[in-house]
Design goal:
Layout lengths: L10 H12 L4 H5 L1 H31 L4 E2 L1 H11 L3 H10 L3 E2 L1 H24 L4 H11 L3 E2 L6 E11 L2 E2 L2 E2 L4 E6 L1 E2 L13 E5 L2 E12 L2 E10 L2 E2 L3 E6 L1 H25 L5 E7 L2 E7 L6 H16 L4 E7 H6 L13 E7 L4 E4 L14 E10 L2 E8 L46 H23 L5 H10 L7
Length: 478
């Protein structure tokens, strides 16, 4: 619309028209329009800020560039300011310049590959995944016992140091170990990996991290504290029981906070990410604007009320289609197998797809205290909390490079609002996601923009006509 000479926000003018067009077929759009429109207007404001920042940088570059804008400049605009490449090309064209789009795409691909390599390196310990695949082909998948036991007799199938296989690890070395079976939880689903030990004849190793570099194989990063660890050795794998209990408390606490958020703020407050370790958790969710002190107080009270009610916690496997039909929540963008694990706390009150470890009853979580609430991006908020049973001086020492002491923040004593006097009613059905409605509204609004642009095709002003053709991506006619 700016190309057509319209300044300022346009969605406040267009979305109400789109709502009226859609309401007969989608009545929920009209019913929830205030919430949907607040998201849409916020996105437009954020994009407007992006345009202002990017335009300032682009104007400086255009002033000192002739002929062709380098791909590196276009990449910087995209990477630093989230400035769309299409806009860069369009604005450069208005100044009579081309953009090195091929160079831009090459830099974007390189960045994507680096991110993938970094993620893979964390999981594989810099070892070639082909080496892990050889072990998987030779011995089959790891017999994973994290749901059943905290201890297991295990054999060493492989040792890796600096990405290379080795036959023996000496005292003091940090290596990656593949066992035939393990009770250790590998980091996934937001839950940190287990701590513990591997012990055998004359050898002890401290488990620092546990990952799944490839599907079916669990790899342990360990420090050999006494003796030598060799391929073929028989070991006792033991998870630190207190660490695991703390992890279960924090993970179940994350589910409780998510359910409480949806009760207090509404079903649009959907989780977009999380992290939990003993004593600490944070949860990211879709929401625009910070939470008031009263809202945070109500959220904390609703969560602790659910904990005090000692709700049953259960986990069961079922087909993905069945889980979705019963309203189980899943992270947007995640891929799931055809058979999934559904974790419930208080039945339908909290029902999510989850592969983590959990307590048996909500009271085992202990007291939960919110310690922070902040923005982590446009339309994304983060709440942080601590649970009562967190690591303390009485816990066994954990490796400093992997374990961080849970950040304990004293919770301000708050009075619960009267509306939080009883456990919230269960959510039986999950309504159509707000994002879908917003997308439909924006599509209709986009159509209205196109209509406005088309009207300029017949304008006597040749400059407006040229802009309209460019906006509609139509070829310019001589």
């Amino acid at each position: 619309m700016r190309l057509l000479g319209h300044g300022g926000p346009v969605l406040p003018e267009l979305l109400p028209v789109a709502r009226d067009c859609m309401a007969p077929s989608y009545p929920e759009v009209a019913a929830d329009f205030d919430r949907i429109s607040s998201y849409a207007y916020g996105e437009e404001e954020a994009f407007d800020a992006t345009l202002r920042q990017g335009n300032a940088v682009l104007d400086r570059e255009l002033a000192r560039t002739s002929g062709r804008l380098p791909g590196g400049t276009a990449f910087q605009l995209r990477d630093t300011y989230n400035f769309p490449i299409d806009l860069t090309v369009e604005i450069a064209a208005e100044h009579g310049l081309e953009v090195d789009v091929d160079g831009f795409r090459q830099l974007m691909n390189e960045q994507r590959e680096r991110a993938q390599r970094d993620a893979q390196a964390k999981k594989s310990g810099h070892a070639d995944t082909a080496l892990y695949r050889d072990l998987l082909d030779a011995h089959g998948p790891t017999d994973w016992l994290a749901y059943q036991s905290l201890t297991a007799e295990a054999g060493v199938l492989g040792l890796f140091h600096d990405g290379r296989p080795i036959p023996v690890a000496a005292e003091g070395q940090i290596v990656h170990v593949v066992l035939d079976r393990t009770p250790f939880y590998a980091e996934s689903g937001g839950q940190d990996s287990d701590a513990g030990t591997l012990t055998g004849s004359g050898v002890t190793a401290e488990v620092l991290d546990v990952q799944r570099p490839i599907k079916g194989l669990v790899v342990h990063q360990v420090r050999v504290t006494t003796g030598e660890l060799a391929v073929g050795a028989r070991l006792q794998a033991t998870v630190n029981a207190e660490w695991r209990l703390g992890a279960r408390q924090a993970h179940s606490g994350t589910h409780v906070v998510h359910a409480a958020l949806r009760e207090v703020l509404g079903p649009a407050a959907l989780q977009s990410g999380s992290y939990n370790r003993p004593g600490y958790l944070h949860l990211d969710f879709s929401w625009r604007g910070g939470l008031s002190a009263a809202t945070r107080s109500e959220l904390e009270e609703v969560a602790n009320l659910a904990i005090r009610r000692d709700l049953p916690v259960s986990a069961r496997y079922m087909p993905l289609a069945e889980a979705r039909a019963m309203g189980a929540l899943a992270l947007f963008g995640e891929t799931y197998d055809e058979t999934v694990r559904v974790v419930e706390i208080g039945g339908a009150w909290s029902r999510e797809l989850c592969g983590g470890t959990h307590v048996d009853h909500s009271a085992q979580i202990g007291t939960l205290a919110l310690t922070a609430e902040s923005s982590v991006g446009a339309g994304q908020r983060r709440v942080e909390a601590v649970t009562a049973s967190r690591p303390s001086a009485t816990w066994p020492a954990m490796p400093s490079e992997h374990r961080q002491v849970a950040r304990a923040g004293p919770s301000t004593v708050r009075r619960a609002p009267s509306s939080a006097g009883a456990l919230p009613t269960c959510v039986e059905e999950i309504p159509v996601p707000i994002v879908s409605h917003m997308a439909l509204l924006v599509i209709v609004a986009s159509i209205l923009v196109a209509v406005a642009a088309i009207t300029y095709l017949y304008s006597a002003d040749s400059r407006r006509r040229t802009r309209a053709l460019r906006l509609l991506r139509l070829p310019l006619r001589k």
